[in-house]
Amino acid sequence: MRHELRIGLRGKIIGLFFVCFSLMTMIAVTLLQSNLHQSFKAIESEEALKQINQVANNFTNEFERLNQINSDWSNWNDMYNFVQHPTSAFAQYQLNAQAMRTVGLKFITVVNARNQTIFFDAANLNSGKSENAHAFEQVIEHVKQRILQPIANSNTNCGLDNSDAGAVIVCWQAIHNTDHSGEFIGTLIVGEMLEGAALQRIHAQSSINFNLLPVGHISTYTPNIANSPLDSKTIQFESEQSNILNAQLSSIAGRPIFNLQVHFSQSVSQRGEAITWKVIWVLMLVAALTGITLLISLHYLLIRRLRKLDMDLNNIWRNGRWAERLPISQKRDELYYLARTINRMLALIRKQIIVLESLAHTDSLTNIANRRAFDQRLALEIAQHQRTQNPLALVLIDVDYFKRYNDYYGHPAGDKVLIAIARLLSEVASRPTDLAARIGGEEFAIILPNTTLDGSRHVAENIRQKLAALHLEHADSPLTEFITLSIGITEAVNTDDPSALIQRADKATYEAKQVGRNTVCSLP
């Protein structure tokens, strides 16, 4: 069924291509019969307009990239808290020059709800030295004006501007919590220099030949910069060189900052008449070759990658290997972003599984291991003991007269005692291989791998001494005025299973109670 669906998709695309190409052929023949030269000139002009708009779109893409970085920083709980309570530690470790250089930022400014600057820092991306705020003072003031008086129908919060350090791309966003909650408390302003890596990215998005020339005069009107820095009113062909199209890029303050020159080819009009007789058969040949190329490209660029994506996802799902990630292609196309999004979802699933597993193995009151974690670990340690013959000791601990304590002091006080005992056990069982667990209401246990009976007795006595030092009062105890423990210890033998080992340790605990409590008893 899947195979039929893929074949149908290929057929529809190829059919649509040939229909469109046939219509284009008819239009081309019609144009050839009319004024050829004027038609090709018009085509050149139209292509030039597309190219200059494409360059403007490339600038917009760079704005979106910077805006995404700004969004990641502005929608951040720590940033929201910083605006409310500015600290030098957060600025030093989170908003430093190294952090800015990592993402290519030149400066960061934080302003509060009253549009007052509460933090500024700038990083010299070449030398690594910080720069002061004076170089970007004018840019920041322009942004503040835009914040106070936003342009009508504007759906962007990025733009170009001039600074003493050079032209910059600047973006600003309101600061919120990570989940976009919280009232408006300020704005995060970030900027990068329009040079080096930024210009390379803009050039790399297309093969269009263009230059940026500084504008030496101020325009007499405020252009519409609601959606793009390119002012469509200034687009015009060069009078002296007909293969150059000019337009102005405006700053966020409404002033021209660059003259954008696009150099487009005139070969179409120059060779138009010479290729008239070749057009029809060339179009037919192109249609056939393009159809074949489309079929092959569709398979290798889309269908095959979709099949592999489906297989990888099914393998992860069937085997439950949520830690695995889909391989991401170097081609930054739609499938690249789809695989990246799926990997983020897999990472989220993995985190949630880890949290659930942690909750399933942790006692909610004492935050040490629960009975389930204890049983699983004990089974593993006994199996390890039987393979290696290394000693394994088990310590069972029961709080003496705990019911009387709850009746006398109340259950909240009893919970505090259990928490204190759990903390004490965690301190004593401090080796990575040790496990302290709460296995019942007032019952605790410690698994001690590579520990003999004498060693476990030393651990048990250490627990009693540390508890005595805490002086946890128990006024209703018939034994003493403080909380005490009855402790039973035992050591595993080759024939033991978890149940047998627990029963022997439990019997030792029972004997400790029988001989008067507040003592340690052992059974080999």
- Secondary-structure class: alpha+beta
Beta strands, count: 15
Task: Sketch the topology as an H/E string, one letter per element.
Answer: HHHHHEEEHEEEHEEEEHHHHEHHEEHEHE
* CATH superfamily label of the largest domain: PAS domain
Round the Cα radius of gyration to an integer and report it. Answer: 37 Å
- What is the CATH architecture term of the largest domain? 2-Layer Sandwich
The biggest beta sheet reads: 6 strands, antiparallel
Mean pLDDT, to the nearest integer, reads 82
Unreliable residue stretches: 1-6, 217-226
Q: How many individual domains?
A: 3
Give the N-to-C terminal Cα separation: 67 Å
How are strands sequenced across the largest beta sheet? 3-2-1-6-5-4
Q: Supply the number of helical segments.
A: 15
CATH T-level fold name of the largest domain: Beta-Lactamase
Proportion in helices: 40-55%
Shape: elongated
The fraction of residues assigned to DSSP E strands is 15-25%
In the CATH scheme, the class of the largest domain would be: Alpha Beta
